[in-house]
């Protein structure tokens, strides 16, 4: 009994020291996090920008604005916050504690972009159908083995699900309208590559110039019943007159860890001992 009291007295200083360091680290962490609150408004109309994306630059830490354009965001002081929204120019600001108001200016270039549709090309401002476009820059920034998996998260409402990770069998199932896609013989969209129907994974993602996803019946009506589940138009890169030759290389290195097996009991004696311990604890 006396020996236990002596050992307990020796342990107490170490416990107090550990608790002191713990509270000190918690207070430091709390001091390094600030709450940024504010509102995102249209610079021309002063209306709230709904659903604007607010992300800490270089990380996945982010949020979106509500119906009134308001947001609340926790970050470290001094980091750069990027504000983006479809049809607006992106805005970047340094994080500081308190309330801020961010004004976003309409990007007229976005409405002047040329979009490839079934009948040819149109300006985005003149489109009446539901069309999503994906540029080459977004595809090149992703290290994906094929084109179907590269489309993950790039088109609103489109579901991209990879069924297997085996080499050669890692293509994704694409549903242009998500789980609400018409459930017929095949829910996969029609893929047209440079005017010809083909497999989407037959093209190297590095060779793609742009992708247009035709979602509704008005946009894909030229293709008839074959385009009932949407149409994906892929345009590949072509040589440019007067441009200097350019050689590019893309490499991917991946590493996987083998899953560890469960530790098995050596004999029945160990099993009975553990079983009795479980019964006593229950």
Give a brief outline of the structure.
With 282 residues, the protein is of the alpha+beta class. The chain is 21% helix and 28% strand.
Any key phrases for this structure?
282 residues; alpha+beta; Immunoglobulin-like
Structure overview:
- Helix content is 21%, strand content 28%.
- Strand 8 (114-117) and strand 9 form a beta hairpin.
- The strands form five sheets. It has a five-stranded mixed β-sheet with strand order 10-15-16-13-14. A four-stranded antiparallel β-sheet has the order 3-2-5-6, with no helix packed on it. A three-stranded mixed β-sheet has the order 4-1-7, with no helix packed on it.
- The protein has 282 residues and is an alpha+beta fold.
- The two termini are 30 Å apart.
- Residues 1-6 have low confidence and may be disordered.
What average pLDDT do the residues reach? 75
Q: Percentage of helical residues? A: 10-25%
Biggest sheet: strands, sense, closure? 5 strands, mixed
Annotation, overall tally of beta strands: 16
The level-1 CATH class of the domain at 113-236? Mainly Beta
| Strand order in the largest sheet | 10-15-16-13-14
Class based on secondary structure composition and strand pairing:
alpha+beta
CATH topology of the domain at 113-236: Ferric Hydroxamate Uptake Protein, Chain A, domain 1
Count, helices: 5
Rg over CA atoms, rounded to whole Å, is 28 Å
Elements, N to C (H/E): HEEEEEEEHEEEHHEEEEEEH
Strand content: 25-35%
Uncertain parts: 1-6
Please give the CATH architecture of the domain at 113-236: Beta Complex
Distance between the termini: 30 Å
Categorize the overall geometry.
Answer: extended
Domain TonB-dependent receptor plug: 124-231
GO biological process, one term: siderophore transmembrane transport
Protein name: TonB-dependent receptor SusC
GO molecular function, one term: siderophore uptake transmembrane transporter activity
